[in-house]
Specification:
heterodimer; A: alpha/beta; 11-stranded mixed β-sheet; 12 helices; B: 93 residues; mainly alpha; two-stranded antiparallel sheet
Chain lengths: 432, 93
């Protein structure tokens, strides 16, 4: 464990920008120091999304969630490092250098909200906001041994979140324990007319340690090929613990898992190719060369401003949507996405929650995932929840060697409280 | 699917992204690996398909009335090229 108690040092590179934004008034988060992922807009404080193309961009407005933090007494202590625009699961795809895992600095903290998770795990912040498009809150929560929730799609306003894949992403809370995480969730959930996908449904706090009688499904595919057997063993033990606490554990199957990863990547790449068209050096970011013709000028800015993973995803998304390939790629991905939703709907007719590992392994070594496809494959257990828009939490459930393992619990749409209560029951039992 | 260097160059052009020679080589190899993986969608059962439990979908519209917005100066403050309160862009023609 890295010693970071002495004040301000950020040896882990958890932050892109440090700040000390005071609260507007006292509130439920008074006394809390909160870190905010750098794709969430903060008025007057640089917001880069981990990209060179946005270096120096100062948003003129606060995201809804930042307004809520400041209105409820939180001090915002900085903007956290991330994979560029959220594209990655290691935080190595940042233009500002990788973040290190506080539990083992030869390893990644996960991603893309790796800076947020590392800041919490190292004690540089008591809570943090992340965003989760395909696991970007849950993966780093799992790798850094903290708690992170991807809320139901529509539960938290995305106003002020720099969009990457709108149909998948949600802002969510991260903290060292379930209660703090639930407190942060209760502050950021709720109605905002500026995000038309946002429902008016506040989040109930405090969590209740309730698990008795809850039916938990264990899809066999969650323990399939590619899942480290040591991770699987730890997670099975956690599930046994839930059973001892009164949950009913039921074996089940989710055949659409076979297609989920391809469906996810084609969808997010396609959406990214459209969303990231706005980064042209004209309205913000590194300046465009006005002497060049339009397309040449944009190509030049985007060659210099985007990292390799962003280029890959925008290009593959462009390809998947292009005439002649749309039917083969994008349309089929949407069909597979429908199958994933249908599988969840069927399973949630029989059980209340689904459980399994958050990630197939413990934290990777730095540079271990240098081939894109091998990195993508590690997202297989987290992407289904985003495809269906259902809530999912990662809660620490043990260690393999010295590295943390996360238990993932997934629930029905808008039943975020049930997911959090189950995680709370598990955590409380561990304390006792 | 077999993607050639020429295809990668064409996609980069469509996406308005400049890439280096080195990236062209690297991406050609990687795109083939990734698209080979995506080909598993060809094995999707194409039978009857239901939409699953999509939550009720309805449009959320507000009244068509003026609401406060950013002042012009604030809205364009981040633009690297500005002229007389406007954003300067490269020539189109």
């Amino acid at each position: 464990m890295v010693e970071l108690a002495e004040g301000d040092r950020d040896d882990l590179n958890a932050f892109i920008t440090r700040c000390e934004l005071p609260p507007l008034r006292e509130g439920r988060l008074s006394g809390h120091r909160v870190a905010v992922k750098d794709n969430i807009s903060t008025a007057g404080v640089q917001t880069t999304c981990g990209s060179r193309i946005l270096q120096g961009y100062i948003p003129p407005f606060d995201a809804f969630v930042v307004e809520r933090l400041r209105a409820e007494g939180a001090v915002i202590v900085g903007k956290t490092n991330m994979d560029e625009f959220g594209m990655g699961n290691t935080t190595e795809n940042s233009a500002f250098g990788p973040t290190l895992n506080p539990l083992d600095t030869s390893r990644v903290p996960g991603g893309s909200s790796g800076g947020s998770a590392a800041a919490v795990a190292a004690g540089l912040a008591s809570m943090a906001l992340g965003s989760d498009t395909g696991g970007s809150i849950r993966c780093p929560a799992s790798f850094c041994g903290i708690v992170g929730l991807k809320p139901t799609y529509g539960r938290v306003s995305r106003y002020g979140l720099v969009a990457y894949a709108n149909s998948l992403e949600q802002i969510g809370p991260m903290a060292g324990n379930v209660r703090d995480m639930a407190l942060l969730m209760s502050v950021i959930a709720g109605h905002d007319p500026r995000d038309s996908t946002c429902r008016n449904q506040p989040f109930g706090f405090p969590p209740r340690s309730e698990i008795r009688g809850v039916r938990i499904g264990i899809p066999e595919e969650f323990f399939g090929e590619g899942v480290d057997h040591r991770v699987a063993t730890i997670v099975y033990q956690a599930i046994e613990r839930l059973e001892e606490l009164g949950a009913e554990v039921i074996a089940c199957s989710m055949p659409s898992m076979r297609y989920a990863l391809a469906a996810y990547y084609l969808t997010c790449m396609s959406e990214a190719s459209s969303n990231l068209a706005r980064f042209d050096g004209v309205r913000y970011g590194i300046p465009v060369n006005h002497r060049l013709p339009w397309h040449e000028a944009f190509r030049d800015v985007r060659e210099r401003g985007f990292g390799k993973e962003v280029k890959r995803r925008v290009m593959l998304g462009t390809f998947a949507l292009s005439a002649g390939y749309y039917g083969k790629y994008y349309a089929k991905a949407q069909l597979a996405r429908g199958m994933v939703r249908e599988d969840f709907a069927r399973l949630f007719g029989e059980v209340d929650l689904l459980a399994g590992p958050t990630m197939p392994s413990v934290a990777f070594r730095l540079k271990e995932k240098s081939e894109p496809l091998s990195s993508y494959l590690a997202d297989i257990l987290t992407v289904p929840a985003n495809l269906a828009g259902v809530p999912a939490i990662s809660v620490p459930c043990g260690k393999v060697d010295h590295l943390p393992v996360g238990l993932q619990l997934i629930g029905r749409h808008f039943e975020d409280e049930l997911v959090v209560n189950a995680a709370y029951a598990y955590e409380e039992a561990g304390r006792g | 699917m077999n993607i050639t260097r020429r295809d990668v160059g064409h996609i980069a052009e469509l996406a308005d992204i400049g890439i280096t020679q080195e990236e062209m080589e690297e991406f050609t190899h990687q795109f083939n690996v990734i698209l080979d993986y995506f080909d598993l969608l060809d094995r999707l059962p194409m039978g009857e398909f239901r939409r699953g439990d999509a939550p009720d979908e309805f449009n959320i519209l507000r009244d068509d009335t003026e609401t406060p917005c950013l002042p012009q100066g604030e809205a364009i403050r981040n633009a690297p090229g500005r002229e007389d309160g406007f954003i300067r862009a490269p020539r189109v023609m």
